[in-house]
């Protein structure tokens, strides 16, 4: 019995590429196999990720890292020492030390192109923290993220729904950033739900809390530029359903530093002004907001992310649609009215003209967020919507 295919692994990683230390053992083992087949005069002819199985992925990770470390040492005499990838050496139960604290590494929670996130125990405060360990020592990029996070300390991060930044330090050559420990990302939640869409009452508190965060960022002149479900964390989904915080400010920039031609945002959430080389403002984040609203409601991305041509074609198709709410004037009842309000905000977020796109402050006053269109109605639908919005305090007169 084997584990899972490399295709399954890539899907679990959301198609995030492997680094060189991860690719090397795969290629080495395949070369051994194909060398044996060639000696037997056999052509395999069907090599693809589906047909390469991991034997026991969990138990082999440390072994592969050890192989790569030894391989790198052997190659160092003949190859350049400036490697493209840095292998993270930290292991479970290592103690990471900063100038003010010691952190016991309990487990790795996730991995991305930046490096890994580890769940750690602060031995001084006895609190759980999440430590982001960078695999690359790109000082400029890391310094930019730290600078953004330090600016955000001026905010009440709990009220503004932004992750709390605790510490930054370098340990054994790796740059580490410590944050409050949160639950799971909205991407993880959607995967657990097998991409079954959220309902409007579940989407509303998420959008409201993000609008509060983006309103605060806009007031500080900060463009977030990387909104996607991976970067929105549930605080404690069991105790506070849909209470969220915005994380990962590695790509955030001061708005005055945004230059025409910059490539920003994940492709599925990328705004027209980025694609077309137009002036960039904080409005790029509201486009991302609209894309994420659509993703949660439909359970799939609104726009294709495979190529620019398909994206432009989809945008042009969307622009040919009737205006909201005129197209829904004949609809009555609580649920249809809530759907109409949702679509109204969605379209205002997805205005191709960035100057016409709704701002976070304006969106906070939209009826979908305030629930004003539901009035004083008494129904299980309205009751549920009110309960879910309790995690996102605001001035709702009917609550």
UniProtKB/TrEMBL annotation:
The record ties this protein, via InterPro entries, to: Kinase-like_dom_sf, Prot_kinase_dom, Ser/Thr_kinase_AS, Ser_Thr_dual-spec_kinase
Pfam families listed in its UniProt record: Pkinase
Which parts of the chain are coiled coil? none
- Report the leader peptide range: none
A GO BP entry is: smoothened signaling pathway
GO CC terms on record? cytoplasm; PML body
Q: Which domain of life is it from?
A: Eukaryota
SMART domains (UniProt xref): S_TKc (SM00220)
Listed A to Z, the keywords are:
ATP-binding, Kinase, Nucleotide-binding, Serine/threonine-protein kinase, Transferase
Keyword Transport tagged: no
Q: Does the keyword Zinc apply?
A: no
Q: Name one GO molecular function term.
A: transcription corepressor activity
- Which protein are we looking at? Protein kinase domain-containing protein
Boundaries of each Protein kinase domain copy? 103-369
